[in-house]
Amino acid sequence: MSEVYAVRRARLRECCNAVGSTAALVSRPANVRYLAGAAPEGAVLLLGSTEDVLLCAAPPDDRSPQTRPDDSLRLHVTAGAGADPAVAAAGLAVAQGVDSLAVEEHHLTVTRHREIHAAAPKLRLAGVAGAVEQLRVVKDEEEISCLRIGAEIADQALGELLESILVGRTERHLALELERRLVDHGADGPAFPTSVATGPNAGRPGHRPTDRRVEEGDFLSVCLGATYRGYRCEIGRTFVIGTAPADWQIELYDLVFSAQRAGRESLVPGTACRDVDRAARHVLDSAGYAEALPVRTGHGVGLEIDEDPQLTPAAMGKLDACVPVTVEPGVHLPGRGGVRIDDTLVVRPEADGGPELLTITTKELLAL
Amino acid sequence: MSEVYAVRRARLRECCNAVGSTAALVSRPANVRYLAGAAPEGAVLLLGSTEDVLLCAAPPDDRSPQTRPDDSLRLHVTAGAGADPAVAAAGLAVAQGVDSLAVEEHHLTVTRHREIHAAAPKLRLAGVAGAVEQLRVVKDEEEISCLRIGAEIADQALGELLESILVGRTERHLALELERRLVDHGADGPAFPTSVATGPNAGRPGHRPTDRRVEEGDFLSVCLGATYRGYRCEIGRTFVIGTAPADWQIELYDLVFSAQRAGRESLVPGTACRDVDRAARHVLDSAGYAEALPVRTGHGVGLEIDEDPQLTPAAMGKLDACVPVTVEPGVHLPGRGGVRIDDTLVVRPEADGGPELLTITTKELLAL
User: Fold this and answer.
1) Cα distance from B197 to chain A (closest Cα, Å)?
2) Which residues does residue B127 pair with via DSSP β-bridges, in sequence order?
3) Chain A positions with Cβ closer than 8 Å to B
4) How far apart are CA A121 and CA B188, in angstroms?
5) Which residues are in the Creatinase N-terminal domain (chains A, B) (predicted)?
6) What are the residues whose beta carbons fall under 8 Å from the beta carbon of B356, sequence distance 6 or more?
7) What is the pLDDT of residues B209-240, one digit of tens each?
8) Which domains are assigned to chain B?
9) Do residue A110 and residue B106 have CB atoms under 8 angstroms apart?
10) What is the predicted ipTM?
């Protein structure tokens, strides 16, 4: 694995050289993990002119492969409380003869940036402006494999929940049970706070579980994901509680299903991100739900649950192969509830069979 | 309650005026919540020259008192994706005739600070340098009451766990069960990721639960906390699994217990923070454990689990009455395990009975 990280660091070094910096300081945790194989709390990575160094405030916990940094990195533990590894990294850069250090201005606070400058006043601080995030967009097969296993775990947890009695249980309890099942099946943990929404709450994006209990006739929408070896996926489904859904529930469900399918089917390399959004949004717009729509219909996933690309009306850029994204349109009708259907898929060329669906739980409208 | 928030904002306004700013932009979520009563995701608070405005990227969820902002604030929803409420706040400040805006430089990133400046180039951006954090150190009785209830919840969750069979269960499962019990008893959620550590892991500060199972003869150390109405407390205890602890376990436990008691007993208004640390540390130092000690023996708690004051050898400042802190010395012996005892207490004058212990689970060495 060590080689993977070295190759990633070489690519970042090229980006930095192109803007005139001979070294870079990476501080955003997901970026540190991407380039170093692990991100101990507070650790920063110095891509130096003579060697790469992972700086930590305390010795990293290296008992598991997931938390053990890449062997080819030198490890530097900054001593004592309050010693900021980023400030120490600036000192190391100067000692290596670096005169311009690229830093993550979108992650460093103003105060921390000033402390780095104060510790090494002759060092010019440049910006790397999301360079690592851009490298992270297209995944290798090892990364996709982690997402695939995470999706299997989420599918299993959701499948087991559906076999249990739901009426009378609270949103909070169902969410906790799902998170327990994720861990039971081997997840590092939930990829984000599990959302369970019943009745009038159903279909609300990012709904935080309440003490409302599941009732007969409710819509029940669930959104969860597993983290597996650091990679985060997402699945969302909506069900009906009781023997038979009402007509308005079937109509709304079919509509959101069509919108989600349109989004999924447009996931082809070379498609503009905004066109994926438009494909899904158009279906809902045409049915008169323009006002009820969220600002986006999907986003990239990986070491973070919300990465580039963004699937929004104003998004720039096109989809590449091997980019995992969510497609998650929904409609929420205040006071009545709503529907949300959310999959994680990987963009693949048509010759390879088109988009690869990672979250395979059925999208039929189940009455539970 | 509305008055409480208005008073807090008036105090911050005084701090800003003292440094020559007529307005302030608060962006750190816990600070926004402290001053506005709620912190919807991404929201910022403008303390303006003519009115105070809470700016959010999406309409806040105001169905529960915990997420409903203070009524006396004007609410401003910035439209569309990517519209940063902080940038919008700078525009509002200019419209109010503000020429100098104090911002939280320890929270704003370099990029965001630059965007605010670009949107309002004539506005001078000053720093407020932890001013809200300082206001937050001394709690009112309403805040302490939330911490007290949170501590009761954590005590209950821990007490129930102790009554169950522990041998053979994994650290991960025990941690998840504790978190479920916290929510069962009315917590908003865990105050921080619950730590359960067995055998050689016991006593490691911040240990992340693994798949190791509890065995006879183990030390078992547990650290958990509840969030109640936003306020976070902490309790840590160490137990022995089996009928009788070994001699080394009893000795180590007694030592850490003495250190923790020394720390607790020194919590008197006017005591230097470093002297609390020294009181606890001295006991362990004298017994030859100087090397094994963590960098601090306690810290403040409140809307965040780690607030000022810090109880470290180099800490500046003195304790005030009504400041809640943890006292949590511990010793970890690599390969053997260790002991950690952690309470949340409120500093009170001796005339009021001295430090108020919020986490009341026994600190006797229980053999489970």
Assistant:
1) 14
2) B103
3) 41, 61, 64, 80-82, 103, 105-114, 127, 129, 172-173, 176, 179-180, 183, 206, 208, 210, 295-296, 310, 312, 314
4) 46
5) 8-138
6) B345, B346, B348
7) 999 999 999 999 999 999 999 999 999 999 99
8) 2-136 (3.40.350.10), 138-357 (3.90.230.10)
9) yes
10) 0.82
